[in-house]
Amino acid sequence: MKVLKHIAGLLLVIVGIIVVRTFMHAPAPMADVTQVNIDIDSNVVAQHLSESITFKTVSNQSMGDKKAEEFDGFIQWVKDTYPQVNQQLELVMLNQTLLYKWQGSDASLKPILITGHYDVVPVIPGSEDKWQHPPFEGKIVDGIVWGRGALDDKSGVVGMLEATTFLLADGFQPARTVYLSFGHDEEIGGPMGAAAVTAYLKEQNVQLAWSLDEGSFLFKGMFPGVDNLIASINVAEKGSVTLDIVATAAGGHSSMPPKNNAVGVLAKAINKLEEHPVPGGLQGLSATMFDEISRYFEFPMRMLFANRWLFDSLIDRQLSSVTFSNAMLRTTTAPTMLSGSVKTNVLPIEAIATVNFRVHPRDTPESVQAYVESVVADEQITVRSLGGRGASEVSSWETQGFEQIAQSLREVYGDVAVTPGLMIAGSDSRHYGQVADDAYRFNPFELSQDDLAGFHGTNEKMSVDAFVLGIKSYIQIMRHGAGS
């Protein structure tokens, strides 16, 4: 009986600790932030975004398919549409990337860079009739701007130009020099755009305090029960490595297949990879992000994150089961291409699966390949690397620049849950980060889950209201970032 009493008492203590820690795991008090009152003509800025979409600035994988005249047309449109920017800022053209310099008054302050890209991905062949409005007409219907680039990333480029125009008209004079870079080839890695800008800045001995590129957005409804807007300012981005998993076997006629032919051996190897993903976990940057976001969860989920000492394995299983959160925890595995026999009745000598891995900052391309080799180990299997790059450096989120971005968002949107995050795709910041103390990746537009389906897909769109709020955010980011 005494033992049972002791057990009951211990359980009560544990429950008490869990409950207390859960109540303590709450959002920090909202800082005293005065929301700004900025007058933006929504009809004018929506029309400008619409016009920008009509230029078919498509980056195809083959450079031979590029329509250079569309890019030249966009560049001329920028000069015609934003005369104050082009009269008062210095412009350097690097191939078809525009680099503006807004000279600051204090040369002792490191400059900042705010950047986006105006090239877009192609429309998926055969999907044209699935668009509610043609992808390159920039239709404005019921307060929505439709078309390729509305999200990725002409809204960012046009938003920055609108913000700069507003500040120039308002008489704003930056203390810190501001660079604006609008890339023309981000969708194919930025070799002639962001890479050229980075080389140019190095030649000019420019070291940036921080840069702000495309990345995450403000989300509502991403997590059940969370009413606040969540702004995950990405402080790092994943790398990428592609591996060929190659199975070999004796060829022959399909009428006499051996027990283990190359396709079957390959299938088993791919199955092993999917059943044994690269190890991950809620650590470092990912832990910080979920620690902040979970403070806004409803009580049961908040309880788990407030008491990771007890529930860590359960949290890991839950997060790993959701595509979005799983990508935050580990290097992801994605078989994307298969090849085998050249004829239906011929057994292949080689069967190949091409697998793309998005490399988490805790891993390297080399460590990923070593892990894959250990998982698929078989005398009939070899692993060949097709090349890749490691994850970026992780920028600090305890800096003046990060806080200035966060403050700007709160001045426009109110009580926003701001957290550092990890970009699971790539951006031009892989280049700009070479000349910046810290590189941030964030678009200050509010999006829903439904909006996200338009990324590189069909029915890409941006609401006019969201676009206006994003412009206001860029105005405040420039004010604070360049003001001191």
The stretches of 5 or more residues where confidence is low (pLDDT under 50) are: none
CATH homologous superfamily title of the largest domain: Zn peptidases
User: What fraction of the residues are assigned to beta strands by DSSP?
Assistant: 15-25%
What is the CATH architecture annotation of the largest domain?
A: 3-Layer(aba) Sandwich
Mean pLDDT: 94
Estimated structural class: alpha+beta
| Overall tally of domains | 2
* Distance, first to last CA: 69 Å
Output the number of helix runs.
16
CATH class of the largest domain: Alpha Beta
* Gross morphology: globular
Residues in helices, as a percent range: 25-40%
| Largest sheet: number of strands, sense, barrel closure | 8 strands, mixed
Look up the CATH topology of the largest domain: Aminopeptidase
Strand tally is 17
Cα gyration radius (Å):
25 Å
